[in-house]
Amino acid sequence: MIDIKSIWANQTPTDEIIIKTRIEDIPQFKCYAATNHKTGNHLFILEISKNAVLPEFKNFKFKGLLIHTFDFNDSKELNIYLLDNQLKDIFSLFIENILEEVLDCVTENEALIETSNVVLKWKKLFDKINFQGLTLESQKGLIGELLLFNSFLDENHPIDNLLESWTGPDYEDKDFLFGSKGIEVKFTSSKTPKIRITSERQLDAQNLSHLYLILYVAEQVKDRGFSLNSIIEQIRNKITGNHNALKFFNERLILVGYFDEDFENYNGQYALKKNYKYLVENDFPKIVSSDLASGVYNASYYIELSAIEPFVVNVESVIELVN
After folding, report:
1. What is the enclosing helix (H) or strand (E) of 190?
2. d(C-alpha 32, C-alpha 13), whole Å
3. C-alpha separations of 4 from 121, 270, 301 in Å
4. Do 269 and 180 form a contact (C-beta atoms < 8 A)?
5. What is the per-residue pLDDT for 129?
6. Which H or E run contains 28?
7. Pair 212, 277: CB distance under 8 Å
8. DSSP bridge partners of 67
């Protein structure tokens, strides 16, 4: 993987305002990691020939980023600027994703199409990330996913496979996908436990052989409990010997909006009371896309636990669900 943060870190000021370092890992294209040493802002530059077909990126701007194209006499240029240095970490992941997709391209037009696809995907991610910190609801959602993640680690599930299967950070409809088996995770500390489903897609098992719903029921405590921070620390300690896995895990946390500098906001503690596992079958109480009238979408609703007791799966090991 190309470590663009290291390239930026090693750049030193010159007489030029823009300091450029060519990315040698992609020799077929003129890709540069660059820094405006007057402002300290980073950018990515792709130089292309005059006849290359640029996507519609004119003054394309979102969440602290600006994409600008230049048409010179004998060439063209695509520039992606970081406008807000507080987003440096996630901007690095964004550019590295572009480089990964461009790496195997042969023509400039192929590279531009792949870049365009990555930009559109990341725009959706940027629009959903709360850069002011995770809301309480988002914290609980992440806690649920990480509790399950930790359970898989405790059962020695391969970390690389687990990281690839954890699709929650990509804002997919399911939190985990293991081949044709999906898992949706919920965490509640309500005194009257119920499950909140946030869209008609979450419990839609279309294209899946099995869909499971895992519910963690907890209560808030003042001490001797676990917090979002403590679960993350546990997982990091378990995978610290695998540098690539640890790096990937930390990148996934950034994608969901968890930044280490917000650590003090995530110390609320919980004690786990119960853990339920359900198989979402055809007659499981739910709303899916096919139930909705035309023009209706993002249906949010609650499920009472008493209504889904018949669907409980009696297994001790979470590995049994995905094998």
Report:
1. none
2. 16
3. 20, 38, 43
4. no
5. 73
6. none
7. yes
8. 60, 80
Q: What is the side-by-side order of every strand in the sheet holding 269-279?
A: 176-178, 181-188, 210-221, 269-279
Q: Quick one: tokens of 319?
A: 């590995």
Sign of CA dihedral 248, 253, 257, 261: negative
- Among 52, 47, 45, 51, which residue's Cα sits nearest to residue 80? 45
Q: What is the pLDDT of residues 130-155, one digit of tens each?
A: 777 889 999 999 999 999 999 999 99
Q: List, run by run, the mean pLDDT of 10-residue segments along the chain (323 residues).
A: 88 87 95 89 94 76 85 91 86 93 95 92 79 87 97 96 92 90 95 90 94 97 95 97 92 88 92 96 94 91 95 94 93
Alpha-carbon distance 253 to 228, whole Å?
A: 11
How far CA 191 is from CA of 147, 184, 194, 206, 277, in Å, comes to: 20, 22, 9, 33, 19
Question: The tokens 């890992």 sit on which residue?
Answer: 25
CA distance 297 to 112: 33
Query: Which pair of tokens denotes residue 263?
Result: 């650590």
pTM of the complete model: 0.77
State the amino acid at position 252 in one-letter form.
Answer: R
Using left for φ > 0, alpha for ψ between -120 and 50, and beta otherwise, residue 307 falls in alpha
* Euclidean distance between CA atoms 286 and 280, whole angstroms: 9
For the chain, the C-alpha Rg in angstroms (whole number) is 22
The residues facing 22 across adjacent strands are 32
Closest CA to 126 of 102, 91, 98: 91
pLDDT number for residue 143: 97
Q: Given this model, what pLDDT does residue 159 score?
A: 96
Beta strands in 153-193 (DSSP E): 176-178, 181-188
- CA distances to 18, 127, 175, 197 from 131, rounded to whole Å, are 27, 10, 21, 24
State the DSSP H helix or E strand holding residue 268, giving kind and residue range, or none if neither. Answer: none
